[in-house]
Amino acid sequence: MPDRSPGISLTVNGARITVAPGTTVAAAVAIAGAATRTSVSGEPRGPLCGMGICFECRVTIDGMPHQRSCQILCAPGIAVMTGAAAAQTPLEATQTP
Amino acid sequence: MSQRFDILVVGAGPAGMAAAASAAEAGRSVGLLDDNPAAGGQIWRSGGHLPAQAGAWLARLETARVTRLQGWRVVDSPKPGVVRAERNAAFGTKSGSSDICAEFSYTSLILATGARERFLPFPGWTLPNVMGAGALDAMVRGGMPIQGKRVIIAGTGPLLLAVAAHLAKRGASVLVVCEQAPLGRLARFGARVLREPAKLWQGAGYRLAIGSARFRTSCWPVAAHGEDRLRAVTLRRGARQWTLDCDYLACGFHLVPNTELPALLGCRIEEGFVATDALMRTSVNRVWCAGEPTGVGGVDLSLLEGQIAGLAAASRNQQAQALASRRPARLGFVRALRDACELDPQLRTLAAAETIVCRCEDVRYSTLQQRAGWREAKLHTRCGMGPCQGRICGSSAEFLFGWKADSVRPPVFPARVASLTAMPPEPAPAQTHGELASTLPHDAKETA
Fold first, then answer.
1. pLDDT (average), residues A80-92
2. Fewer Cβ atoms within 10 Å of its own Cβ: the N or the C terminal residue of chain A?
């Protein structure tokens, strides 16, 4: 690879993307074109404060919910699920024999 | 897990870095605990250009063998002399919840918890890609592509021009910078800070750096438009109103201090800020506070206060006194900045009846309007009861309705039940360098 530092590969809602080292999970979600969470009345939301205060950037990482994606750097192989997709996962799982 | 230090510093922005380095250079064992992936706070966030000053302080932390605890957030203080913290990015740990929660005990504590942006609700402000000014800068530094994106920057305060300059440098198309303050007041602010040429020069530099972008005073957003994400913003200046297509709206109305942890520990808060004496001592024994929580005054004042607090906490009172004598002259800038950023009363009319004020619980303006105060609003509408615990809507509600927030209760950040009930083992002996840091996964470690 011409780049000195190899990219970090992860999935966002099942789709594989590669980001540069030092990329936050919130930035990766933005690159993937997803909103981070769905509000209590069903609105899509994205990061607001960018510094871990507002909790709008919460996502599920490797099955652990409510992770503030703006304060966490991407690590190789992590699976990120955003609000809408995270909510759908259990339902899909029950439909699969 | 638990660890003990002579001096624990919470917050690794300029004030916390200066405090930690100064205390460690005086021979104390120092832990520097911070919520972010890397030291520097918001103003010196990694992932882009950093001033030489930032590198110099990072080097001092290293040389003085300060134990760096990045990616930890304090959730509680179970007893005096101890804080309990949870680790971010704990999803990678396979060894269970004991790695997620830790206690840090100390003889002296220095709080350098910084500030956050003030947000004001207007129709559409909850759309994805509407965020704070510092927030967009942080997202870009965190790897979000901005090249060629159309950006509108709005709100109030010197941060707007700093963000505009940085984003323009990164290839963003900054369409306009809208400052709510009138030109006359900004000119007065400029005249007042003339005595500090470095600051004025910095402002002029930003003005040049944003190039062709327009700088509008007495101007603010009245609506953000879009379905699933932001598509356009309507701006108003006086009687004129116009709409611009854009990709991001970066909008922050100056800063509010993060006083939740100081308040939890019992530090006296005066007019929204942590009260200290000349040596940055709070009303609580052996607890110091430095930087924006004591008054929003920018990097230089934060560094000065951090050094004073660090030296005083390390009982180097003579050195601390010498630095403290320089502080009163700089407090004029705090007042000048506060006056310059005073919000236009018309901004109270931006929210429509159906505009969401509390984003965590989706509480709308019309619902809150019927309430008499913050506590009643919380009890009846769940405003301020979500995960941010009122950190965002609290300062909005204060401006919109004149409500003052209640007392702070633990946990100061949402925490796992296990973290609040777990009893970590007794603290290990004091340590002077990074043993704990070496146990962290690579992504939680400092990458200076």
1. 68
2. C
